Write the structure tokens for this entry.
Amino acid sequence: MLDTPQVQAYLPFRGKGALKIVNLTRVLFAADGSELAIEAARRAAGMLADFKATVLGVVPPLLLPPDTAVAGIESVALPGMSPETVPEIDESVTAKIEAGIERTITAIGRPAERRVVHGDPAIEICRVAEEGRFDLVVIGSHGSGFLKRVVLGSVSHHVLHHAPCPVLVVRERNDG
């Protein structure tokens, strides 16, 4: 287990000023290209003082081998997907992830290292956080219900419980 730095925060008096978190110098932003991930990065960057950013995009596996069980459910190939078309689709998905990384860097408002890896997003985010000795992981959460979490899993839930450092989960705003 990595040593986790003490988190210090400035909390505004009576709502004046802004929350600023200091002493977290290496921040890993998980980016999937969604508006939620970009908004999470923007909001987190606004709370952080001085930090070095790395934006990570994870290209998920596109085709599972036949008879692979996922959460007790047999895998089903997407229509039109065959092992021969996987490289084309992987290239397309990778390009979309890279575009999402660029949009996330713009939202952060500072230079950042770009990183793309392939694999299960939850596992890869934790692995990169540990290998890179990051001080904080920032990730968005759709706030999915219990059933969706059980069936599909939750990347933010896994990262929150398995990352080697503090995790800032930014939930989708509910303006209603």
Remarks:
- The chain has a mean pLDDT of 77.
- The first strand starts at residue 8 and ends at 10.
- The beta strands are 8-10, 20-22, 26-30, 52-59, 69-70, 73-74, 112-118, 136-141, 167-171.
- The CA atoms of residues 94 and 152 lie 22 Å apart.
